[in-house]
Specification:
Elements lengths: L3 H15 E4 L2 E5 L15 E2 H13 L4 H13 L19 E7 L2 E7 L11 H18 L2 H5 L1 H15 L29 H17 L6 H21 L1 E2 L1 H8 L23 H7 L6 E2 L2 E3 L2 E3 L2 E2 H9 L5 H13 L1 H4 L8 E2 L4 H8 L20 H10 L3 H14 L9 E2 L5 E2 L8 H15 L14 H8 L9
Antiparallel strand pairs: 1-2, 3-4, 4-5, 6-7, 8-9, 10-11, 12-13
This protein binds alpha-D-glucopyranose (GLC).
Length: 473
């Protein structure tokens, strides 16, 4: 009989094999060890994928690989303006990198999305990079790394990109489709939740790290942006029974400052009958996207879980999100923790919104597939909100299958019973999502690596004089 120790040992041994060495030093982990992957980029180290590995290494005291990763990726960040608009702009962090040989010398070659399918821009990489830098500092107390000139400049350049004046008057970040973990067209252009949660966390992290003279303008910009961003998300993205009732009775076409339905959401664009049935008492969540006459009511897991972990949501909202996960377990966790988004886009919606993407057919891949990597975030939220039994249940489900199925990248089907149609095997962040979830459960003292002190309601409302809707959690 295979024991849980056997499974952990197999996971650790496989993880060791994923480590990439550059000039003799560990600098990252490949996306997947699947030997059948030809011509694709799974042999590269993805910034977003490495975050889970990095946190696991930090928890285990293996800080060198994380430091090397931060130093090397910083060198890949463009520092000058580009004349060529097809080249990555100043400040952007790459989606991934790999080692190449030039005249017999090892070099790191970055991909900023210019080689990626559909040439998608990795907006999340820059945000994750700052969040990871701060996790490294929390773990090692080695503040000197962040205070180095090159690191201060790296953070500055990212923030200049994020805080630039643009054709937009929201505190949220405007991005194209596929700018994050969901790196294919899935109707998430505009102000998707995943990016907003990471944006908020990156601003909080940068606020702690940018303390060298000369950064005062940026610190002020962060202080101005944060409360507005928090209030905007907590108010306009929130969906629970009360809010659904409000939206259901919204008037449209309101003009002027006193408009209640500020984004002119037409109630017929919201699947209110399904939500009325689906939303459990005391449950709630943050919508996937909010914009002009747009409220995407799909549940996006990464954005919601990161909001709970980092205290972007109020305590009551965090409780309500966890209640939703608990009460809608079959939909959101099912037979493999956990769905990336729910529900799937089907029929015409699938065709028009994904552009008929055969990888994103309903209940597959990004279109409501189940991704084991999300388990570490679920573990963190469960520990944070004292719902340890939920993550214990999730780990038990994953333990039954992951090793036997050779650590697939994702699962398909309404319940996540099918191994993903085009899923890679031996996917690093699947292995790490599982191991890290166990570590967080066993050692909750690691929570501060990724969490922040709550931002008080007074701080938020003082700054932006917004009244929050009440809701019962
Ligand atoms: C896929 C995923 C992306 C991930 C990459 C490497 O493209 O959509 O989120 O970073 O694979 O695992």
């Amino acid at each position: 009989m295979v024991t849980s120790q056997d499974i952990d040992q197999d996971a650790w041994e496989t993880l060791e094999k994923t480590i990439i060495y550059y000039q003799g030093h560990p600098v990252g982990t490949v996306a997947a060890l699947d030997g059948t992957v030809d011509g694709l980029n799974y042999d590269q180290c993805f910034v977003r994928d490495f975050v889970a590995s990095a946190l696991l290494f930090l928890v285990k005291g293996r800080t060198e690989i994380v430091r090397n990763f931060l130093e090397q990726t910083l060198k890949l960040q463009p520092k000058d303006d580009q004349l060529d608009a097809y080249k990555p702009g100043r400040g952007l962090m790459p989606a991934s990198f790999k080692i190449v040989f030039n005249n017999g010398q090892e070099e790191l070659e970055a991909d900023f999305g210019e080689h990626a399918i559909a040439r998608v821009t990795p907006v999340d990489s820059s945000l994750w990079w700052i969040i990871l830098l701060r996790a490294y500092i929390v773990a090692t107390k080695d503040y000197s790394l962040a205070y180095q000139d090159d690191f201060q400049q790296g953070i500055r350049l990212i923030l200049e990109l994020c805080l630039a004046t643009r054709f937009d008057m929201y505190p949220t970040l405007l991005v194209p489709d596929g700018a994050c973990m969901i790196d294919r067209r899935l109707g998430i252009y505009g102000h998707p939740l995943e990016i907003q949660s990471l944006y908020y966390a990156a601003l909080r992290a940068a606020r702690e790290l940018l303390i060298c003279p000369g950064n005062e303008d940026l610190v002020l910009a962060i202080d101005n942006r944060l409360p507005l961003l928090i209030a905007h998300i907590r108010k306009h993205y929130w969906i629970d029974f009360h809010r659904l009732n409000d939206i259901y009775r919204y008037r449209g076409e309101e003009y002027g400052k006193d408009a209640v339905n500020q984004f002119n959401i037409y109630v017929d664009s919201i699947p209110y009958c399904e939500l009325d049935r689906w939303l459990p008492k005391g449950g709630g969540y943050l919508a996937g996207n909010v914009g002009p006459s747009q409220m995407d009511t799909r549940f996006f897991t990464l954005g919601n879980l990161m909001a709970v972990i980092t205290d972007l949501t109020t305590e009551e909202q965090s409780e309500a999100i966890m209640t939703l996960i608990e009460q809608r377990w079959d939909d959101l966790v099912g037979d493999m923790p956990m769905k990336i988004t729910f529900p799937a886009l089907e029929k015409d919606e699938y065709k028009y919104i994904t552009g008929c993407d055969p990888k994103n057919i309903p209940w597959s891949y990004h279109n409501a597939g189940n991704w084991p990597v999300l388990m570490w975030m679920l573990a963190t939220t469960c520990v944070k909100t004292n719902r340890r039994e939920l993550i214990q249940r999730a780990i038990a489900i994953a333990q039954e299958r992951l090793r036997h199925d050779e650590w697939p990248e994702y699962y398909d089907g309404k319940q996540g019973r099918l191994i993903g149609k085009q899923s890679r095997k031996y996917q690093t962040w699947t292995i790490v999502g599982f191991l890290l979830a166990k570590e967080i459960l066993a050692q909750p003292e690691n929570l501060p690596l990724i969490s922040f002190d709550p931002f008080s309601a007074e701080q938020v409302s003082q700054a932006c004089e917004l009244k929050f809707d009440s809701f019962d959690a």
